[in-house]
Every structure is written in structure tokens, then in C-alpha cells.
């Protein structure tokens, strides 16, 4: 099931992102610090138009997605991860749909997200849910060259 985060989920979101991205993509410890800042920022702000959701399988967190507020009209999706053991079972779709509904309920007009070219499965899901690629650029983060991307979904 998909549920709203609780305080003890913060460490799961941080650690699961670090471990998965380190193992699958070779990201370094700076990525963990980046995720840590995002998670604690959302939790500490505690805004009504921001949230983190967790894939919960029999009491165990197995995935996440978060939404931060950029401004009154724009939300930013992030912290998207599904445990490799659950991939292909629809949890990624459910997480994205949860975010879209939440944004509609909070009168957001658009959702943006930043990702990179090597995250092909996530990019496929974003496209399936109506996001479109708006901008690309190359940068060095987590000790590697990345082709970063900005995606957007307009809500009406």
C-alpha cells in the first residue's frame, strides 16, 4: 500500500536512495548528503502542499516519492524509488499517480522534476504519466558526468 511517511521513514528514504544509486549507478557519498537535505527539508517545512509517500509492504518501507512546493502553482517531484524486488508490479505508477492527485487537490498547475538520462525506467514512467522533457544539460555530480534533465507535466 501507499501511505504518508512518518518520522522513522526518513532514514529509510535516505539510506535506500544512497544504497541503490551507489550500487546501480556508482554514485558517491555526496548523493547521500543531497538526499538527506531534501528529506529533512520537506519534513522540517511541514507544509500542507508538500509530502512524502512510502510503499509499505507488510509494515516494511520499500519505496518512496516526494513532492515539494516550488511556488503556489508548481510542485517538484523527487525522492522516487521502488525497491528492486518490487519493480514491475505497478508501485511506481501508484506513487506517481498519488503525487498527481495530491497536486490537483492542492490546485497546483504544474509538476516539475529533475532526473538524468541513465534513469531509463523512471523516465519511461514519467513519460507514461504525461511528463515531457523540457531541458537537458551536462554536469558533474556524485563524482560522475551526468546528462541531467528537467521534465514537466501541466495540470488543468
Automatic annotation (TrEMBL):
Xref: CDD domains: NAT_SF
Residue ranges annotated for the N-acetyltransferase domain, each copy included: 1-156
Entry superkingdom: Bacteria
UniProt-recorded Gene Ontology molecular function terms: N-acetyltransferase activity
A Pfam family that the UniProt record links to this protein: Acetyltransf_1
InterPro entries: Acyl_CoA_acyltransferase, GNAT_dom, NAT_camello-type
PROSITE patterns, per the entry: GNAT
Keywords: Transferase
Name of the molecule in the record: GNAT family N-acetyltransferase
Native source species: Alkalicoccobacillus porphyridii
Amino acid at each position: 500500500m501507499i501511505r504518508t511517511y512518518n518520522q522513522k521513514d526518513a532514514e529509510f528514504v535516505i539510506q535506500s536512495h544512497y544504497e541503490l544509486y551507489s550500487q546501480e549507478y556508482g554514485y558517491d557519498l555526496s548523493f547521500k548528503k543531497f538526499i538527506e537535505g531534501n528529506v529533512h527539508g520537506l519534513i522540517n517545512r511541514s507544509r500542507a502542499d508538500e509530502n512524502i509517500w512510502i510503499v509499505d509492504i507488510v509494515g516494511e518501507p520499500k519505496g518512496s516519492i516526494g513532492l515539494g512546493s516550488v511556488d503556489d502553482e508548481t510542485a517538484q517531484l523527487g525522492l522516487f524509488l521502488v525497491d528492486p524486488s518490487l519493480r514491475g508490479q505497478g508501485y511506481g505508477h501508484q506513487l506517481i499517480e498519488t503525487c498527481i492527485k495530491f497536486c490537483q487537490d492542492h490546485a497546483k498547475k504544474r509538476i516539475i522534476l529533475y532526473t538524468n538520462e541513465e534513469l531509463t525506467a523512471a523516465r519511461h514512467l514519467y513519460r507514461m504519466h504525461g511528463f515531457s522533457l523540457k531541458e537537458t544539460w551536462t554536469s558533474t555530480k556524485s563524482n560522475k558526468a551526468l546528462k541531467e534533465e528537467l521534465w514537466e507535466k501541466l495540470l488543468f
